[in-house]
Amino acid sequence: MSATETASTTGTQVLVHRRVAWNETDAAGHNHFSAAFRWIEEAEHDLYFGLGFDMSIIDRVPRVHIDIDYSARLYFNDSITVRVVVERVGTSSCTLAFQISKEGGPVAISGSYVIVHAASTTDGSAPWPADIRSALSSGQEIVVRTVLD
Predict the structure, then answer these.
(1) Spatial separation of the C-alpha atoms in residues 136 and 75, rounded to whole Å
(2) What number of other Cβ atoms are within 10 A of residue 65's Cβ?
(3) CA–CA dist 9, 112 (Å, integer)
(4) How many other C-beta atoms can be found within 10 angstroms of the C-beta atom of residue 78?
(5) CB proximity list for 122: less than 8 A, separation 6 or greater
(6) Of 117, 134, 137, 147, which has the fewest Cβ atoms less than 10 A away?
(7) How do residues 18-36 score in pLDDT, each as one tens digit?
(8) pTM to 2 decimal places
(9) Half-sphere exposure of 125 (CA within 13 A, CB side)
(10) How far apart are CA 141 and CA 149, in angstroms?
(11) pLDDT value at position 4?
């Protein structure tokens, strides 16, 4: 985020409850490192859907930076929670934090990443439209459950 962008902590978040799929594990039997990237991206899309965004926004919010830490293993069929939280909304960027944990267990994967709003798929960054900025800053919690108990 550039020094000219204003930032605010919002707390808008999505919680996705799902299971680790077989194809998301590696030869050692635990989650492949790349699965976390898919999980947080899917959760981010659920956030947009839950906030009522036109899903064409997905083409206009590239990821420009990511930090990720792995601290525990997740295994096939584990029930997990993927939590993505809007931490800061700048003029054209947004910082999201994430945590992935086994249901009832410690955080296994955590980090943050930055997305940037673009007015089109060919131009550079552009300010967030007011309605999207407001929704990202609303503090809502969206829960998506794909795991049936």
Answers:
(1) 32
(2) 12
(3) 14
(4) 19
(5) none
(6) 134
(7) 999 999 999 988 999 999 9
(8) 0.88
(9) 17
(10) 21
(11) 38
* DSSP letters spanning 77-116: T-EEEEEEEEEEE-SSEEEEEEEEEETTS-EEEEEEEEEE
CATH superfamily assigned to domain 13-145: Hotdog Thioesterase (3.10.129.10)
- H-helix or E-strand containing 50? helix 35-50
Report how far residue 120's alpha carbon sits from residue 47's, in angstroms, rounded to the nearest whole number.
Answer: 21
Q: How far is CA 28 from CA 45, 97, 110, 149, in A?
A: 29, 28, 21, 27
pLDDT tens per residue across span 54-107: 999 999 999 999 999 999 999 999 999 999 999 999 999 999 999 999 998 999
